[in-house]
């Protein structure tokens, strides 16, 4: 049995973290390399564990790696958000992402969308659309990741609500099956969009916008600490900040 897409993506991200390539993004998200690798390990190990919740006409299970760990990580990231506005944006972004993906999924699964569905697998459509919507709604790296992961996870809850309301028997795997892959890829796409587009905007305006932001947050945005698991460490600061410290 081969590895699924979500696990392969997480293994690739682990290698980037190990060699210090992803440290800038982790710093911006208030995660250490060891902490990130611990989360990735929990995601991979938990993806093979389903916890039964309900039996009967509607059988519900929650996947540990795809349902429990992402929620814990998402709310941790929300708690580290710099402003209340960012926290609200992350939650609203998650809801918006879930609704958009649900609407697109409903169209794709119809007979009219069946031909399109054979061209592009929904496992790629959902995270791609989810990642883009999550970035637009979340903007910051943390908010985008939260919106991307929770937004895709909401699909399973929407399906559960539909079964309960209509009384139709069925099975719901919250965070399991293909949802795990979509959650991982969607969160990654959202963060990468926030990183590259956000970094481009910061360079054009000469640095991160400090208006209305916590001074400590602005300092963290200007100062990035790169560390790899190989022990190579480099502290990169803006020239302006360095000159200010030298003169102090």
Structural write-up:
The chain has one domain. The C terminus is likely disordered. Helices cover 68% and strands 10% of the residues. By secondary structure, the protein is mainly alpha-helical. Helix 3 runs antiparallel to helix 4, helix 4 runs parallel beside helix 9 and helix 7 packs parallel to helix 9.
What general outline do the C-alpha atoms trace?
A: globular
Strand count: 5
| Largest sheet composition | 3 strands, mixed
Rg, rounded, reads: 20 Å
Helical segment tally? 11
Helicity level, as a percent range? 55-70%
Strand order of the largest sheet: 1-2-3
The percent range for strand residues is 5-15%
Note the main attributes of this structure:
single chain; two-stranded antiparallel ribbon; 5 strands; 68% helix; three-stranded mixed β-sheet; 248 residues; mainly alpha
In short:
The protein contains 11 helices and 5 strands.
Which secondary structure elements does this structure contain, and how are they paired or packed?
Elements: H1 5-18, H2 23-28, H3 33-46, E1 50-54, E2 58-63, H4 64-79, H5 84-108, H6 114-119, H7 122-138, H8 141-166, E3 170-174, H9 178-204, H10 215-222, E4 224-227, E5 233-236, H11 239-247
Parallel strand pairs: 2-3
Antiparallel strand pairs: 1-2, 4-5
Helix pairs in contact: 1-3, 1-9, 3-4, 4-8, 4-9, 5-7, 5-8, 7-8, 7-9, 8-9
């Amino acid at each position: 049995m081969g590895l699924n897409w979500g696990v392969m993506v997480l293994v690739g991200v682990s290698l980037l973290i190990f060699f210090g390539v992803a440290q800038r993004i982790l710093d911006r998200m208030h995660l250490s390399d060891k902490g990130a690798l611990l989360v990735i390990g929990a995601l991979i190990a938990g993806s093979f564990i389903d916890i039964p919740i309900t039996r009967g006409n509607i059988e519900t299970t929650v996947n540990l790696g795809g349902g429990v760990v992402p929620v814990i990580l998402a709310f941790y990231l929300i708690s580290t958000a710099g402003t209340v506005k960012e926290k609200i944006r992350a939650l609203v972004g998650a809801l918006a992402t879930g609704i958009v993906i649900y609407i697109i999924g409903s169209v794709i699964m119809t007979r009219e969308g069946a031909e399109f569905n054979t061209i592009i697998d929904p496992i790629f459509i959902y995270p791609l659309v989810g990642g883009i919507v999550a970035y637009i709604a979340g903007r910051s790296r943390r908010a985008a990741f939260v919106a991307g992961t929770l937004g895709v996870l909401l699909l399973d809850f929407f399906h559960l609500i539909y079964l309960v309301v209509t009384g139709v028997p069925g099975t719901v795997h919250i965070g399991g099956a293909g949802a795990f892959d979509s959650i991982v890829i969607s969160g990654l796409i959202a963060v990468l969009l926030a990183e590259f587009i956000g970094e481009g905007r910061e360079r054009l305006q000469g640095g991160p916008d400090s208006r209305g932001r916590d001074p400590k947050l602005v300092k963290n945005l200007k100062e990035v600490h790169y560390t790899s698991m190989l022990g190579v460490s480099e502290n990169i600061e803006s020239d302006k900040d360095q000159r200010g410290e030298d003169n102090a």
